[in-house]
Write a structure and sequence with these properties.
The chain is an alpha/beta fold. The protein contains ten helices and 15 strands.
Length: 390
């Protein structure tokens, strides 16, 4: 049953995806590595006043912008840092994580902070004030589910509360949160396309969903209480591409891909490059509210398996639940049993609001994102492409 399991010696969790493999896809090359750790009082290099091309209100400062990112060593964090380093409107990039990103340059200021620690909120407040941060991007979320649910809760739910308590003591202009469209949940009553007005109905007993939904509630409450701070929530469709690694890429990397007998739900993806571009757009201009960030088009799961060059393994739902439960308990499964619902029912989001308000239009369709991932995975299958070590 290799389609939903991974070797027992695989890492039990991944708060940050693995580093990208070089030379694959159309993503821009990352800048030279070399994170600089500095004291909070270091002066910033001058930068030009920002004039954003986006449809929202542009952020401007004669000294240049200062952007902080939690989860700076994650896939989204590393790539955003690389882009921000090259933007002349950005004076400093403040990385907040327990390990340094590998894409930092002269603008990077690294602060090692563990959001699960009780004293982290005081440290966050000190860093945000000392670095004069105007924009905080919260990316410190698991890209894949983990059996270590207590730790995941401390990181995502409690960690978000620590972050916001610290941010409340600073004068932030903008907060941006990474969320995911799978939080809508897969249900037989779902419409063909879920808008931002639909409730989040993912299984509340599953920590991977519950902690992220709690983080959204905390952010929205913060925005309602705090005047003068723009709060933006970007719900990305499952991210796919040649370099990102998460539960979805591991699921599609199996020779045999588990499906549910008699079900063929529609899926959608967002290409890794488009996901990064959406965050840069939200950093550049002010877009208060929640936005679905999705690729154009949808594909039936059967077509996805075929295009990925895999073999479907149809399983009765009554048998799949106990099987995946046993594998998950043994730390040998990619995802817990609650994810089986996505093999049965549709969970597809509408990206019209992001296009209309943010001006976000993905470069890659769902199909193109899948094919870009598939082309890279085929090279990995024949060992012509090696993963970059973590």
């Amino acid at each position: 049953m290799a389609s939903l399991s991974e070797p027992p010696d695989a890492p039990p969790h991944d708060a940050a995806e693995q580093p990208p493999a070089a030379g694959v896809g159309r993503a821009a090359p990352a800048p030279e590595a070399g994170a600089v750790t500095s004291s909070p009082g270091d002066p910033a290099a001058p930068a030009a006043t920002e004039a954003s091309p986006g449809s929202g209100r542009a952020s401007s400062s004669p000294r240049g912008r200062v952007v902080a990112l939690t989860g700076a060593a994650s896939f989204l964090g590393r790539n955003l840092i690389g882009i921000l380093e090259e933007d002349p409107r950005i004076a400093r990039v403040v990385a907040i994580d327990i390990k340094p990103p590998d894409t930092g340059g002269s603008k990077l200021r690294l602060h090692t902070i563990d959001l699960t620690a009780p004293a982290s909120e005081e440290r966050i407040a000190e860093v945000l004030a000392a670095e004069q941060v105007d924009t905080l991007v919260h990316l410190c979320f698991l890209s894949s589910p983990t059996p270590a649910t207590a730790w995941a809760h401390e990181l995502e739910s409690v960690g978000t509360m620590h972050l916001l308590h610290g941010a409340r003591q600073a004068s932030l202009r903008k907060l941006i949160l990474w969320s995911q469209t799978i939080l809508y949940g897969a249900h037989p009553t779902n419409p063909n396309f879920l808008t931002e007005k639909h409730p989040l109905r993912a299984d509340p007993e599953e920590r991977f969903f519950a902690d992220k939904m709690a983080a959204e509630r905390e952010f929205n409450a913060f925005g309602a209480r705090t005047k003068g701070t723009t709060v933006t929530v970007l719900r990305t469709a499952p991210i796919l591409g040649p370099t990102v690694q998460n539960y979805l890429t591991r699921f599609l990397a199996r020779r045999l891909v588990m499906t549910m007998l008699g079900f063929d739900p529609l899926w959608q993806f967002i290409h890794e490059v488009d996901a990064i571009a959406a965050f840069k757009l939200a950093i550049d201009s002010d877009f208060p509210g929640t936005f679905n960030i999705v690729g154009d088009g949808v594909l039936p799961l059967s077509t996805i398996v075929r295009l990925a060059g895999r073999t479907p393994l149809p399983v009765l739902h009554s048998a799949a639940g106990p099987l995946v439960s046993a594998l998950w308990a043994a730390h040998a499964a990619i995802a817990p049993p609650s994810f089986l619902q996505f093999l049965r029912y549709v969970c597809v989001a509408d990206g019209e609001k992001a296009a209309r308000v943010m001006g976000f239009r993905p470069v890659y369709t769902t199909r193109e994102a899948l094919l870009d991932y598939t082309n890279a995975q085929r090279l990995r299958d024949v060992r012509l492409l090696q993963e970059t070590p973590a």
